Amino acid sequence: MSNAASLNISQSQVKAAPVPTQVPTPQYRKDHRVNWWLTAVVAVMSLTILVPLYFTVVTALKTPAEAGTFSLPNSWQWHNFADAWTQVNYPKAALNSAIITVVSVVLTLLTNTFVAYAVARNMDKRFFRFLYYFFLAMMFVPFTVIMLPIAKEMGALHLDNLVGLFLLYMILGVGSNLFIAIGFIRSIPESLEEAARIDGASTWGIFWKIIFPLMGPINATIAILTALWAWNDFLLPLIILTDRSAQTLPLAQYGFQNQFTSNYPMAFASYLMAMAPVLVVYVFAQKWVISGVMSGAVK
Question: Whole-angstrom Cα distance, residue 131 to residue 121?
Answer without folding.
Answer: 13
